[in-house]
Design a protein that fits this description.
The complex is a heterodimer of chains A (75) and B (172). By secondary structure, chain A is an all-alpha fold. The longest helix of chain A is centred in the first third of the chain and has 36 residues. The model of chain A has no long low-confidence stretch (mean pLDDT 90). A 4-stranded antiparallel β-sheet of chain B has the order 5-6-7-8, with no helix packed on it. Chain B has a 3-stranded antiparallel β-sheet with strand order 1-10-9, with no helix packed on it. In chain B, strands 2-3-4 form a 3-stranded antiparallel β-sheet, with no helix packed on it. In chain B, strand 3 and strand 4 form a beta hairpin. The chains are: A mainly alpha (75), B alpha+beta (172). Chains A and B meet through helix 1 and helix 2 of A and helix 2 of B.
């Protein structure tokens, strides 16, 4: 299996993780909007913090993808 | 076109320019590039979602900007036990209700029911705030105890100076 073929499989797995995190972020956003419109402001900060944590996870995975791609090009 | 496959099965990998690697002619290479780009795209979406989420936090600070206004609502001596008084806070479009509890404590809430926005009234027999539209009932802590409402009433923070009562803020 070539290095890039391994990358294809790896990227598919990463894609599933990132997509799941984005779905969670969408859910957090709907919760935030509902809380904002109903005046439940206590919910907003934890939801935004949770969304940021998920963004950090996604950014970490993207960084890994970039590093893998750089290695694949240098191979 | 000079296509060379190395011992690892990678076609033209080492010699092709980056732009050429991003537009491969084989399915395997195409899957590699499309999945990589999709991860980038979704992470950008993730960034936007996080930013919008923080925007809701910012928006909450501006939506009720009038809620920090101090407003005179009445005299404490005019309140008997188990009586209520209507007032407007933070603006003239926001009806509120103040109640002197049987224990003598003064509490105030938004008069807008959290179910479908009917006006709640003080019910002495139930010792709570009653919504006549769908028979919702809130206790004097603002918590829903009966009927369809599921969220508490927003509380108005009161401050007493001498005999005068002022509304000084709202709690979600």
């Amino acid at each position: 299996m070539s290095f890039r073929a391994q990358g294809t499989t790896l990227f598919a797995a990463i894609l599933i993780l990132v997509a799941s995190a984005v779905v969670l972020q969408l859910w957090l956003l709907t919760v935030s909007m509902e809380a904002l419109l109903s005046g439940e402001y206590k919910t907003l900060l934890p939801a935004a913090a949770g969304s940021t944590v998920l963004l950090a996870v996604n950014a970490g995975l993207l960084r890994y993808v970039f590093r893998f791609d750089r290695d694949a090009q240098g191979e | 076109m000079n296509l060379e496959t190395d011992e690892k099965g990678c076609t033209n990998c080492q010699r092709a320019a980056k732009w050429r690697q991003d537009f491969p002619i084989e399915w395997e290479g195409d899957h590699y590039v499309s999945r990589r780009e999709m991860v980038k795209f979704l992470t950008l979406g993730s960034l936007l979602l996080a930013l919008v989420n923080w925007a809701t936090v910012l928006a909450s600070r501006f939506l009720h900007r009038g809620s920090k206004v101090e407003r005179y609502i009445g005299l404490a001596s005019s309140f008997d036990q188990s009586e209520s008084m209507l007032f407007r806070y933070p603006t003239d479009e926001d009806p509120c209700i103040a109640v002197r509890t049987p224990e003598g404590k003064l509490v105030a809430y938004s008069q807008v029911c959290t179910h479908l926005s009917c006006a709640v009234v003080y019910d002495k027999s139930e010792n709570g705030l009653f919504c006549p539209c769908h028979h919702g009932l809130f206790n004097l802590d603002g918590q829903p105890v009966a009927g369809p409402p599921t969220r508490r009433l927003p509380r108005v923070i009161l401050k007493q100076r001498g005999d005068k009562i002022y509304a000084i803020g709202m709690e979600g």
